[in-house]
Specification:
The protein is an alpha+beta fold and 170 residues long. The protein is built from six helices and four strands; from the N terminus they run ααβαβαβαβα. α3 runs antiparallel to α5. The longest helix has 18 residues. The chain is globular.
């Protein structure tokens, strides 16, 4: 799929069928995340693929937003391996994990897999429930699967502000 078409057609799927994505598609998605750039190439992302009934039940306790996705990817980062920016007030953890997640979202659409970025959960509780190391912080959950036959974008999906409202030339 051509990139412009991909970004126009991709939407946050809120209703998945129960068919599991195939291993080749999942590997392509994970590889796109692995290839994502990170500050100083620290690659602090930590990716957890959730597919077992037991761990999907944990996700369901944490958020109502799994939407029956058969795979959930937990995108986290190692807080002890981030680049601290000049001034010492920010580090690269959240932005690097966001770049990784975005690469995986776009790769999923390219592979014919639907997705939804989920941030409606308590990251600290999720890390505890999933048994992640204390030095890792969860950025987001990524629902992956095939859209149910009657799934569709939200009504406001194609509503966008004019570029003049969001871009300024200085």
């Amino acid at each position: 799929m051509e990139f412009t078409e991909l970004v126009q057609k991709r939407y946050s799927c809120k209703k998945f069928g129960n068919q599991q994505i195939n291993k080749d598609q999942l590997n392509a998605i994970l590889e796109a995340g692995r290839r994502a750039p990170t500050a100083k190439n620290l690659q602090e992302q930590r990716i957890y693929v959730i597919q077992s009934a037991e761990n999907l039940a944990i996700i369901d306790k944490l958020t109502p937003c799994r939407y029956s996705a058969p795979t959930v990817v937990v995108v986290a980062f190692n807080k002890d391996n981030v680049f601290t920016y000049p001034g010492g007030n920010r580090d690269s953890g959240i932005e690097d994990a966001s770049i990784v997640a975005t690469h995986m979202i776009l790769a999923s659409k390219n592979a014919g897999v639907d997705s939804c970025w989920v941030n409606f959960f308590d990251p600290a509780l999720a890390a505890k429930e999933l048994g992640l190391p204390e030095n890792e912080e969860i950025l987001m959950l990524l629902d992956l699967g095939y859209a149910d036959a009657d799934a569709k974008p939200l009504p406001n999906h194609d509503t966008r502000k004019a570029i003049s409202e969001t871009v300024s030339y200085m």
